Amino acid sequence: MVKASIKLGHPTFVFARPLTPQSTINKINLHKEFQSSGVTIIQGELKEHEKIVAILRQVDIVISVLPFPQVLDQIHIIEAIKVASNIKDGELPNKMVEVARTKRRGCGSSEFACKISCKLREYYKEYPQKRFLPSEFGVEEDRLSFLPPFEACLEKKRKIRRAVEASGIPYTYVSANCFGAYFLNYLLRPHEQHEDVTIYGSGEAKAPFTYEEDIANYTIRVANDPRTCNKMVIYKMQKNILSQIELISLWEKKTGKYFKKVHVPEEELVKLTETLPFPDNVRASVLHSVFVKGDLVNYELGENDLEASSLYPDYKYTTVDQLLDVFLVDPPKPALATF
């Protein structure tokens, strides 16, 4: 997110946990890299209310990227935004209204969309859009329901959404669905030598994948876009909606290998959500929802929903096919989500 913000020319502040003698070399180097890029880093804790308020009075947009265990701690950010009082709805400038009302003449819809997108970007810099983006970036929790372990996690995110709405703070919710590199790494295990792959359920349910760098680049655009204020933006690019079977077939063609398919039946996965300890039961519940039930593609976008690739047709997102080419050369290290 920070790199994308800098790349798109935005003065950027980072409120981060303090560096300590126990801080990793990676964390220290990341701070140095950000500072050398012109990022203002303020070290502190979420309970330092006055410090956060002072920072918020210097910015227009707040993007929370807190990890899941701290989702409910975003209440501290909401309370600080309310006190700072500078992040609130404002009227769109007349020029922006003129652009929004422009009628299409003599060009195709995609060409028209590109022209409008370019015009809007010019105005974003001139008229900053006030906004709070809570730490979302996963599934669209307000219209889906899941098995109890995953549902309990998402209920915490729903509480933050309701608190934001009750506060009157302008917001944008981002549903990025499956982090591309993370999930492809988990499913295909490119970092190790193996003869088999695990398939959850039949393997035919589809899921939308979004490369992490694209999530960041889309999100910075979304945060500055007047069209997305008080809206849900969903990252669901058509080229990146694949089933496990399609994904494995694509990987086999690229690697020249054939993998033995080991299926985990739905009933077995459901049982694991009931018997595994936390947080493993959450992971099993996620796998059931995404790759057995296909929940992330089992709903239509509503009239108040926006889709990222349609909003920004000029942005060339990374396809799953392209991401797998990267995996062939430099596979990512294994990782597990923090619950």
TrEMBL record:
Does the keyword RNA-binding feature in the UniProt annotation?
Answer: no
Keyword Transport attached: no
- Return the Pfam families for the record: NmrA (PF05368)
Keywords attached to this Swiss-Prot or TrEMBL record, sorted alphabetically, are: NADP, Oxidoreductase
Top-level taxonomic group: Eukaryota
Query: What are the protein's GO molecular function terms?
Result: oxidoreductase activity
Ranges of residues in domain NmrA-like? 2-113, 130-322
Q: Which PANTHER family match?
A: PHENYLCOUMARAN BENZYLIC ETHER REDUCTASE-LIKE PROTEIN, PINORESINOL REDUCTASE-RELATED
Name of the protein this chain belongs to: NmrA-like domain-containing protein
